[in-house]
Design brief:
Number of helices: 19
Strand content: 15-25%
Number of strands: 20
Distance between the termini: 41 Å
Structural class: alpha+beta
Length: 580
């Protein structure tokens, strides 16, 4: 189970994890190791486990305290991208590796010379997702929720962005459920003396001799009792240096470093929003990417990012500017800052990047969801392990009593009651007045907004209608997973029986870094001249989840954790072979 501070209580999290083995006392660093892994997040733990399984001595260094073992993956909802899985087939979903690859390539939009390795990684990843991934997950003890979710529907023509079918498989246990097997594997190696975990060790430089990376050095930070995900001190207590046969960079992306986000903000998206929320802890600072680049590694696609336009301010923040993403069904009206509907197909859950571009190009840094209380229960989900305690705690009882039947979950109820971005009212004009008061500007015309809602309602009353969102919502309900769990029966929003109207102010939420260190299919980091930088590997977000950007411009979802697993496994095995 997970408590509100982000700690795991009684449950299946290993009682004596690698963090427990290291403890909070200072652990002396060895002078040399076979494989040095930078970062104790999911990709780093997978790489360490694989290298240690191959008999290599491994040291894992991380700048955070032991409490943050697992990094940002711990906070994840736990979605994985699988293709033609038994879960899909049981629900009547017809998927194939070719369809998934077509969707991936249409979504990624690879169009640069430096996309060579990213596309190779994309093809390899889809093949893995359609093949070995599921059996490998089962071998790790990772189970999947039986109802497959449909994220990033796209709404574009065939060959364009989006998933043609549902592929978002939730892990039973969410992010902690994904991490647990690898924490267990690393812990076993810690006890056997094959792995050393060094927390509060920050890398500031990589050693390079005769064109090969031969280790790393950096600063020892003072001990810090910060809770999981909370900001920790950067006060320096000393220095360290470790020689290594190979170094794996698994340090994450740049999502919490808003200076880097703004510096790399992509062209064509308008100006970076004045207000950004962070979907990742402060430690996701991207500084290790600069260290690797200084050593000769090539950074590519730095302007490709996967930020969400549906962020809300956390009423109980853990890290700086802590935001949560709303995972909405297709029914709420998505409005810009002036109360105008976003154009088709920019409906909730369809095209996150398209919606982001539209919002940021508008000159305002917020938009709105408008719905009623009847819709919010079945259609509003929240991303994150701590926002889904029934799934995280593997509690069927909670699932049935707190979620089934379209109930408003306790997490969503907390935002309705205490979330600063949530507003309710009995009428549209009253709601518009509250929207304007919240942002401090009279941007929304109440009468015009009421007409917008009425026109939408008239389309619903027909039972058919020409409104693209009404049509798309009706189509979504043809899929049993949406009909039973994610999409409310179409109804008019102005019917008082639906309960009070709800408006939710949405912010841009930083999350995933899609570019990174360019790597070949073994996870070896490349130089600017196209040659391999011997001795250096990269995995997870630091590698753009593989190759320096296997997602291209946008992601199909379920590929954050999966990308960490796939690239971490690849880099760990390759680094072990390199040091044999």
């Amino acid at each position: 189970m997970v408590d509100r501070t982000g700690r795991l209580g009684r449950g299946r999290w290993h009682r004596r994890s690698a963090a427990d083995e290291a403890g909070t006392a200072r652990v002396a660093a060895p002078d040399r190791t076979d494989v040095l892994v930078v970062g104790a997040g999911l990709a780093g733990l997978v790489a360490a486990a694989e290298a240690a399984d191959a008999g290599r001595r491994v040291v894992v260094v991380d700048q955070e305290p032991p409490a943050s073992l697992g990094g940002q993956a711990w906070w994840s909802l736990g979605g994985l991208f699988l293709v033609d899985s038994p879960e899909q087939r049981r629900l009547g979903i017809r998927d194939s590796a070719q369809l998934a690859l077509d969707d991936w390539l249409g979504t990624a939009g690879f169009d640069r010379p430096e996309d060579f390795w990213p596309e190779q990684w994309a093809r390899a990843y889809v093949e893995w997702a359609a093949g070995e991934q599921r059996s490998w997950l089962r071998a790790q003890g990772i189970g999947l929720f039986p109802v497959v979710q449909w994220a990033e529907r796209g709404g574009h023509q065939a060959g364009g962005p989006g998933n043609s079918v549902p592929r978002f498989h939730l892990v039973w246990g969410t992010g902690p459920g994904v991490l647990t097997p690898f924490v267990r594997r690393v812990t076993e190696h810690v006890r056997a003396g094959r792995v050393r975990m060094l927390f509060r060790y920050r890398v500031t430089s990589l050693a390079v001799h005769d064109g090969r990376v031969t280790g790393a050095s950096g600063e020892v930070l003072v001990p810090d009792g910060a809770a999981r995900g909370a900001p920790s001190s950067r006060e320096v207590a000393g220095e360290w240096s470790i020689a290594a046969g190979a170094v794996v960079v698994a340090s994450g992306g740049i999502g919490a470093n808003h200076e880097l986000v703004r510096r790399n903000w992509p062209a064509g998206h308008g100006a970076a929003p004045a207000t950004l929320l962070s979907g990742v802890p402060d430690s996701t600072d991207g500084l290790m990417l600069g260290v690797a680049a200084t050593a000769g590694g090539r950074l590519i696609n730095e302007d490709r990012m996967w930020h969400y336009p549906e962020g809300i301010t956390n009423h109980s923040p853990v890290w700086t500017a802590h935001g949560i993403r709303i995972l909405s069904g297709p029914s709420p009206l998505w409005l810009d800052a002036h109360g105008h509907r976003l154009p088709s197909p920019l409906f909730p859950g369809f095209d996150a990047l398209g919606a982001l571009r539209h919002v940021t190009a508008s000159g305002h840094d917020h938009s709105w969801f408008l719905l009623d209380h009847r819709t919010i229960g079945p259609e509003f989900g929240l991303s994150g392990s701590e926002q889904n305690l029934d799934m995280t705690g593997r509690s069927v009882r909670k699932l049935l009593t707190e979620r089934a039947g379209g109930k408003v979950t306790p997490a969503v109820r907390a935002f309705l009651d205490r979330g600063p971005d949530f507003l309710t009212a009995g009428t549209v004009p009253e709601l518009a007045e509250r929207m304007n008061r919240l942002v401090g500007q009279p941007l929304v015309d109440g009468r015009e907004l009421e007409r917008t809602v009425r026109l939408r309602d008239e389309q619903v009353r027909t039972g058919l209608g020409k409104d693209p969102q009404v049509v798309a919502t009706a189509l979504a309900r043809r899929y049993v997973g949406d009909r039973r769990m994610r999409t409310v029966e179409p109804h008019v929003l102005l019917d008082p029986a639906g309960g009070p109207l709800v408006a939710v102010r949405l912010h841009v939420l930083t999350r995933k870094t899609l570019g990174g260190l360019e790597t070949d299919l073994s996870g070896r980091v490349m130089r600017a001249d196209g040659a391999v930088l011997d001795g250096l590997y990269a995995a997870g977000e630091a590698a753009g989840f593989g190759g320096g950007g296997l997602h291209g411009y946008r992601a199909l979802e379920g590929t954050f954790l999966g990308g960490c697993l796939f690239s971490g496994r690849t880099a760990g095995r390759a680094a072990a072979a390199d040091t044999a």
